[in-house]
Design goal:
Layout lengths: L8 E3 L13 E3 L19 E5 L12 H7 L3 E7 L6 E6 L10 H16 L4 E9 L4 E8 L4 E4 L3 E4 L1 E7 L6 E6 L6 H13 L3 E4 L11 H27 L4 H11 L10 H16 L8 H13 L9 H10 L1 H13 L2 H24 L1
Parallel strand pairs: 1-2
Antiparallel strand pairs: 1-6, 3-4, 4-5, 6-7, 7-10, 8-9, 10-11, 11-12
Length: 364
């Protein structure tokens, strides 16, 4: 998703930050990315709108209704003539109500909010870039002194103030507090999933009134509340890691999440999903299959990058995993895992339904 002829992913010139897994980063000469963006120019090329001017075939009858419909649309372009590619790139054909969210405007809101909440020297811009041929803009700010926290004895989590925006309507503009640094489309997807799970994600749709929400003050107020919520989230993760769970309990819990109080059976789709997640519970990223924390990771991985997010890739997978039913399932799993009463009810229901299904299978 990084088009090297158009896109640039900037990192500061520090060993801690300048090595990315994909190797397509541009390491600036300075040790820090400037808060005014003056040393990362290629990510701030103008995004402009152009009226539709279609060239129809000679035999096409352009009546009043057709012309009226055409007039409702416009073309969104990235003017990269002073940028890396030296060209203008069409990005999107939305209706006229679509509002551009300018990269530099978003960048300035993020840095000013971080300055107000954290102080001049208490944060660091660690990644800023574009993806998908300039269709997406993203950035990650590391919060100094809070870059990491430990869950249990061995799991180290990071903390970043992130932003993602698109100029092709794949995702809304979103700023968030997440444990994942954005460096590519996969990490963008994972960061959104993580922040959604923790309820530290603010979406701004590209509507006519949306610029009223893109202000340093609005970003500042939201970041303040998230800093407090992050401590609560840390405590919840620590609690989940201390609560044991075996594979059979994971099966019954998952079956309970997928069903409702009135359910008298588990559907084949839900049953198959439980079976697919079993391996993630035991062998998923960082998992050992021994506690509720592993269960949460399994659900997150399944609906973020696994079969639960569908077979599409890239930006479409991002949208499906983080703004649709998959995201709802991740939130529901987290809610039940952290509520003892709901957890007990879900487990009892799941155990009954899985046993019923096993009995039905045995009788056939």
């Amino acid at each position: 998703m990084i088009n090297e002829q158009i896109d640039t992913v900037y990192t500061p010139n520090q060993e801690k930050w300048d090595r990315l897994w994909h190797g397509k980063q541009t390491v600036i000469e300075d040790k820090s990315i400037a808060v005014d963006g003056s040393n990362i120019p290629h990510v701030f090329n103008p995004i402009m709108e152009v009226p539709m001017n279609p060239q129809f075939p000679d035999d096409f009858e352009l009546n009043e209704d057709t012309q009226e419909e055409v007039d409702k649309w416009k073309v969104i372009c990235a003017d990269c003539r002073e940028g890396k590619s030296g060209k203008i790139h069409p990005l999107h054909v939305p209706k006229k109500g679509y509002q551009i969210h300018d990269n530099k405007l978003l960048f300035d809101c993020m840095t000013k909010a971080a300055t107000e909440v954290l102080g001049d020297n208490n944060f660091e811009l660690v990644t800023v870039g574009t993806l998908g041929g300039y269709t997406q803009f993203f950035m990650s700010i590391a919060i100094k002194g809070q870059e990491t926290f430990t869950v249990g004895d061995d799991d180290i989590w990071n903390k970043y103030f992130n932003l993602i925006s698109s100029h092709n309507s794949v995702v809304s503009s979103s700023f968030m507090l997440s444990m994942i640094r954005m460096v590519c489309m996969n990490t963008v997807q994972a960061a959104i999933a993580d922040s959604e799970k923790n309820d530290t994600n603010q979406k701004i749709r590209h509507s006519k009134e949306s610029l009223n929400q893109i202000t340093p003050k609005a970003f500042e107020n939201t970041l303040k509340s998230w800093i407090d919520n992050a401590e609560i989230y840390k405590n919840q993760l620590t609690m989940l890691k201390s609560q044991t769970m075996d594979l059979n309990q994971f099966r019954t819990f998952s079956a309970g999440v997928f069903t409702e109080a009135k359910s008298d059976m588990i559907s084949t789709t839900s049953y198959n999903r439980v079976a697919e997640m079993e391996n993630l519970f035991v062998r998923g990223i960082g998992n050992k299959g021994i506690n509720r924390y592993d269960a949460l990771n399994a659900w997150t991985e399944y609906f973020t990058s696994g079969n639960g997010a569908g077979k599409v890739g890239g930006a479409k997978k991002l949208a499906r995993a983080n703004f649709g039913k998959g995201n709802d399932w991740k939130k529901e799993a987290f809610r039940i895992l952290t509520n003892e009463k709901e957890f007990t009810i879900a487990n009892e229901r799941g155990n009954r339904l899985m046993n019923d299904r096993a009995l039905m299978a045995g009788s056939n």
